[in-house]
Amino acid sequence: MTTRVLVPPASGRRESLAVAVLVAAILAVAAAVVSLHRDRGELAALPGWQIDLRSGLNAAEQGLTADLLNAAAEIPFLPDSSPQALAEEGLPPFVADATAAARGGHGWRLVESGTFRAWLGLPAQPETARAMLLRLQDRTPTVWIGETLSDASDLADTDLADAGLIAAGWRQVVTRYDASVTRKDAPH
Questions:
Q1: What pLDDT, in 10s, does the model give residues 20-60?
Q2: What is the value of pTM for the model shown?
Q3: Residue 35 burial (CB count, 10 A)
Q4: Cβ pair 130, 42 in contact under 8 A
Q5: DSSP-derived secondary structure for 61-90
Q6: Beta strands across the sheet bearing 107-113
Q7: How far apart are CA 186 and CA 164, in angstroms?
Q8: Nearest to residue 121, comparing CAs of 88, 129, 113?
Q9: Could you give the percent of the chain with pLDDT greater than 70?
């Protein structure tokens, strides 16, 4: 005697359902981990005497800041650090080339006060970039930006310490990182 046994066709319903449940569980756990680790805190506001490199400076000023910080690494090793000597060495932004002209055409001079040495750049085109100051103390560079040309023009009588620059209207350029990597254009 023959017995008939019904064998259902092979389908992947159970396996597909199990994989879908597993994927949903993994996504739920990942979403929970991300939401728990999200930084909800706002960035603390900068003091009024500081300005953010990314959001407070325009593209020309950002380029000048990068050039000044790169030059600051070379300056201590040069026998002469006058702006003319730095230009002869080919160090931007001291070289008067097309890039310098596009970034405001700054004229540079060396200013010294106490333990500070600084290179002051006054723009020929203040609508393109503001006055810039590279200050070195013990090989530690800081970049400052002058809000107005009148603040920058009388720098020779100014103490180059933080308090003196702040009192004269200068703002220190600082870099801070937040969740956003896009540059926001800020009026100045």
A1: 999 999 999 999 998 888 765 566 788 888 999 988 899 99
A2: 0.70
A3: 9
A4: no
A5: HHHHHHHHHHHHHHGGGSS--SHHHHHHTT
A6: 50-52, 170-174, 140-146, 131-137, 116-122, 107-113
A7: 26
A8: 129
A9: 86
